[in-house]
Design goal:
About 50% of the residues lie in helices and about 5% in strands. It has 3 domains: about 55 residues, no CATH class; about 90 residues; about 190 residues, hpI Integrase, Chain A. A 3-stranded antiparallel sheet has the order 3-4-5. It has a two-stranded antiparallel ribbon with strand order 1-2. The radius of gyration is 29 Å and the shape is elongated. It has about 375 residues and is mainly α.
Length: about 375
């Protein structure tokens, strides 16, 4: 049986299919033609190549998964070695193990995804990342003919969602203790500057890679130049924004002036953070916290407190401090959201607990008056 394709403006292409010209060949031939067509339109429209890939996907030949994995790695040049090792390899290796082992193989892409993803907590951000990277690998492997079309993952892998954990908010005193635990070395000074910037400006960790000093109306201003999805508004991204400091205070209530803008302008260095800045802070501060302490240091102690409260802890806890302190200062929500670089919707979803509560304020005023000797009749008059 011969298959021919003729497109306007291009020479005719043809290949021979391994089916005799007979009625009982119709069903398998149509299936194979469908596989060829899919690869033809998704590829570079070379019929012979599409037919070869379809033949590979339909055959029983043994796949050299080490070569496949290396080939796929070459398509992910933007992923650092750490990202590849921690966020791609775990799901790829599990997929290869299931597909190349002697045990019964998953019947399709959805079953394969569900078997692999059960290693990560349902509803977690980590599981979401692993699912995205697994789907990308399986889709690529099917298109290249390393896997059969049945293993193409579905658009959505059904899984129950768990309530989002509240982010743990570091207190000013905890931040000062974390800073004191950092060593007085060149590296320690770089990490200390990074922590101070996160706390004072409420930055996302990756934004430390995109700081810029600009000349404003009243002098030097610190800006972050990297955009990010605002959330809640389809397609909307944050624009470069001016950063507004909110100083950390000591136990005596005195603000700590770390002169961050001047230090950055003079060229003081930040630690090498790479694309996974949040993870870098979590690792470094956890390691530092355990040095020179018989028990847990300040970072681990805060992490344990977050676990007790069932709250999410990490480098974003400095940013949560900024939100809480801004509300405590009485700033308008729209101004806080603008300074933090996200939408009002996202701010409300994450920081509603910090907003002024008129009902609670009424009761507090009432109780304060009672303690001062005023009668209920006087309060309600």
């Amino acid at each position: 049986m011969r298959l021919m394709v003729k497109e306007e403006g291009r020479s005719a292409q043809s290949v021979t299919l391994p089916y005799p010209w007979a009625e009982d060949s119709l069903a398998p031939a149509l299936k194979r033609i469908g596989e060829i067509f899919k690869r033809y339109v998704e590829g570079d429209r070379v019929l012979a190549k599409a037919a070869s890939v379809a033949e590979t996907a339909s055959s029983k030949q043994k796949v050299d998964w080490a070569v496949v994995k290396a080939e796929y790695r070459d398509t992910r040049q933007n992923a650092s070695e750490q990202t590849w090792r921690t966020k791609h390899e775990p799901v790829i290796d599990k997929a290869i193990g299931l597909l190349s082992g002697n045990a019964k193989k998953p019947v399709d892409g959805e079953a394969l995804c569900l078997m692999i993803l059960k290693s990560w907590e349902t509803g977690s951000r980590q599981r979401q990342i692993m699912r995205q990277n697994l789907r990308a690998f399986l889709s690529w492997a099917v298109r290249r003919g390393h896997l059969k079309a049945a293993h193409m993952p579905t658009d959505h892998v059904p899984e129950p969602k768990q309530p989002k954990k509240v982010g743990y908010c570091l207190s000013d005193q905890q931040i000062l203790e974390i800073l004191d635990a950092l060593p007085d070395t060149a590296a320690g000074m770089r990490w200390r500057l990074g922590v101070q910037l996160l706390a004072v400006y409420g930055l996302r960790p990756f934004e430390l890679n995109y700081l810029e000093i600009q000349q404003g109306v009243h002098g030097d201003e610190l800006w972050t130049t990297k955009g990010k999805s605002m959330g809640g508004l389809s397609g909307a991204e944050t624009k470069p924004r001016r950063l507004n400091p909110l100083l950390v205070c000591g136990a005596d209530g005195v603000a700590m002036d770390w002169d961050l803008l001047t230090r950055l302008k003079s060229g003081e260095s930040l630690p090498p953070l790479g694309s996974e800045a949040g993870d870098a802070f979590n690792t470094q501060l956890g390691r530092t916290s355990r040095q020179g302490h018989a028990l847990n240091g300040p970072w681990d102690a805060a992490k344990a407190d977050a676990k007790r409260l069932n709250q999410k802890f990490g480098s974003y806890s400095f940013r949560h401090r900024y939100a809480k302190a801004s509300h405590a200062a009485g700033f308008q929500t729209i101004n806080i959201a603008e300074s933090m670089g996200h939408s009002l919707q996202v701010h409300s979803e994450n920081y509603a607990r910090f907003k002024p509560n008129a009902t609670a304020d009424l009761y507090a005023i009432h109780n304060a008056a009672l303690l001062n000797g005023s009668s209920p009749a006087q309060l309600t008059a």
